[in-house]
Amino acid sequence: KYSVKELLNQGKFLLNKKVLVEGWIRSFRYSIFITLNDGSTIQNLQIILSTNKLDKIIMKKITIGSSIRVIGIVKKSIGKKQYIELQSLDITIYELVNPKILQKSILQPKRHSFEKLREQAHLRFQTNIFSCIMRIRHHIAFCIHKYFHEHGFFYLHTPIITTSNCEGTGKMFQITTMDLKKNQLIDYTKDFFKCKTYLSVSGQLEAETASLGLGKVYTFGPVFRAENSNTSRHLSEFWMIEPEIAFYHLEENINLAEKFLKFIIRYIVENNMEDLIFLNQCLEKWKKKKKNYLLEKLELILKFPFKKISYTETIKILDQEEKKKNIKFSHPIMWGMDLQSEHEQYLVDKYFKKIPVIIFDYPCSIKAFYMRMNNDGKTVRAMDVLFPEIGEIIGGSQREERYDMLLQRMKDTNIDINKLWWYLDTRRFGSVPHSGFGLGFDRLVQFITGMNNIRDVIPFPRTPNNAEF
Ligand code: 4AD
Ligand code: MG
């Protein structure tokens, strides 16, 4: 039994051998050809049927999307496209798709909008475009683990159920227990945990405690944001990678982020060319992108060092650009403001011509409580990595490791110390300078695959008004 990918890769060594393959019919023509896909690769396997009676009956019945099993002999292909094809000996049909149902579904072979694909999210995996994105998504996840493993990081599982709000976000998803028989919510004081619990917005605080013993750790898991951000870059449930490293200063953290992102992109360019080429063909046809749009964009990331500028310099640049009348922002530029996506986009896409930018030393007033205060008393050792098209892809910082300073910051920002006592306590048991960051996994997949909407790179997107499937 072989997958289509195995058959096409090992074809030369399997000539005239009898093999079994299973998949879904992508097309059929001239009453003897079937192309079969099983998800293992973007390529289809060509199957040649005989002209005997049984095969003729099968050919009359089959529809696109139907699932079959084929036993056949591997033959050298006469066509130029592929080296081998399969001469069928025996075909079993698992299920025939009713042509009427097919017509209304996204499996009907024609161009469907991404919105339409999303409406049938459960069938998206059978489309070429989405299976491509899912394979790339897998490879990105895989090489992230590979990078950390090869660099001495330990994979840490942080809890999804928490009592704390790491990022100080305005809203969180609260966990409640429901008595399903009585159809009644149970009061949290009598509930399972006897305290208010939420879905975690970040595993950072727990990762910090682990790094202060294991040295280098990383998390890779789902996090939850209840912000009502209905944009093409926000999900309510997304995947985040958070490395945390003891004895790391901000500069080392910045360098790690750059090396890490370049490693991932190089890995995908080297290992996923087939899928990238297919995606590019789709983007050319549907979005009028250039022939080498994806590859050129990815190679630009690899080619140059990322730009590194402080927040204060950033404000100066944006202010000067406005004065020179190169751009007019809808949010006025002033020191202390949070950078909006219009500023980020202008900076990366226009000013730095699509080379990623790392901005550091942000005002403490717009960043989370745990970031290390600079000597100026105004800025913290924060860093954001901005990517072309996407904007912020990484947020990170050097952490405040000094007990008194951290305590003061927690008080100033109204953090409940009774709840986070354990976090503060780590600053009394061999505290050290340490740093880390969070990479938005889905945003990275979005960048690499060139999708406009983050909903099109995650299997089951969770966004405001959408959690059905
Ligand atoms: O900037 P954020 O909120 O940083 C943290 O959570 C830190 N605790 C990370 C750390 O230092 N360990 O989120 C990090 C990244 C963002 O840069 C962005 O790429 C992504 O997570 N992100 C989202 N992705 C999709 N949908 C959302 N709603 C996102 N919010 C943040
Ligand atoms: Mg951020």
TrEMBL record:
The entry's keywords: Aminoacyl-tRNA synthetase, ATP-binding, Cytoplasm, Ligase, Nucleotide-binding, Protein biosynthesis
Similarity annotation: Belongs to the class-II aminoacyl-tRNA synthetase family.
PROSITE patterns: AA_TRNA_LIGASE_II (PS50862)
NCBIfam families tied to this protein: asnS, PRK03932.1
Protein's UniProt name: Asparagine--tRNA ligase
Domain spans labelled Aminoacyl-transfer RNA synthetases class-II family profile: 134-459
Source organism (scientific name): Blattabacterium cuenoti BPAY
Keyword Aminoacyl-tRNA synthetase (UniProt): yes
Reaction(s) the record says it catalyses: tRNA(Asn) + L-asparagine + ATP = L-asparaginyl-tRNA(Asn) + AMP + diphosphate + H(+)
Subunit structure, as described in the record: Homodimer.
Gene label: asnS
Domain of life: Bacteria
Broad EC category: ligase
InterPro entries according to UniProt: Aa-tRNA-synt_II, aa-tRNA-synth_II, aa-tRNA-synth_II/BPL/LPL, Asn-tRNA-ligase, Asp/Asn-tRNA-synth_IIb, NA-bd_OB-fold, NA-bd_OB_tRNA
